[in-house]
Write a structure and sequence with these properties.
- It is a single chain.
- By secondary structure, the protein is an alpha/beta fold.
- Helices cover 36% and strands 18% of the residues.
- It is built from five helices and seven strands.
- A seven-stranded parallel sheet has the order 3-2-1-6-4-7-5.
- Helix 1 runs parallel beside helix 2 and helix 1 packs parallel to helix 5.
- The radius of gyration is 14 Å and the shape is globular.
């Protein structure tokens, strides 16, 4: 398996975070949560969505964006941001690397400009005309699946 990671920037909805943790456990991916989250990470909804899979995922909590960057930058990992507003490249055309960090923003507000500015890649999921966005857990599953498909072919 690759060394891909999923990062969640200040997630708002415990059920989505739990679903992403379950996804990551099943795919063998680590997850970084960049706080503050919009809920207590011990929330029962998070646990319900993640079920017993949460115990199987490597979860790293970063108390803020600056601490996340202080950890990430020295590792040389590329930050790939999923964005519906400031990306033009479909995720299926993007060339993923085995140690990429796939970053997903807050359900309510995405990520601020200074986070956009730090991303080395910005990708989107093409959607039908007039539709705004997919659920973040669905987006994470689609993008992580494509990234895994690509890096396993290396």
């Amino acid at each position: 398996m690759s060394d891909l990671r999923i990062a969640l920037y200040q997630p708002d909805i415990p059920g989505n975070t739990g679903t992403i943790l379950r996804l990551a456990a099943c795919l063998g991916l680590a997850v970084d949560v960049i706080e503050p989250a919009g809920f207590d990470l011990s929330d029962r909804n998070l646990k319900r969505a993640g079920m017993d899979y949460i115990a199987s995922v490597t979860l790293t909590r970063h108390i803020n964006w600056e601490r996340f960057e202080a950890w990430r930058v020295p590792t040389g990992r590329r930050l790939v941001l999923a964005s519906t507003t400031k990306a033009a490249e479909p995720y299926t055309r993007f060339e993923f690397r085995p140690d990429d960090i796939l970053l997903f923003g807050r359900e309510s507000a995405g990520v601020p400009d200074h986070v956009h500015d730090r991303a080395e890649g910005r990708i989107l999921i093409p959607m039908a005309e007039g539709q705004r966005s997919l659920n973040v857990a669905m987006s994470a599953a689609m993008i992580a699946g494509e990234a895994i498909r690509q890096v396993q072919l290396l």
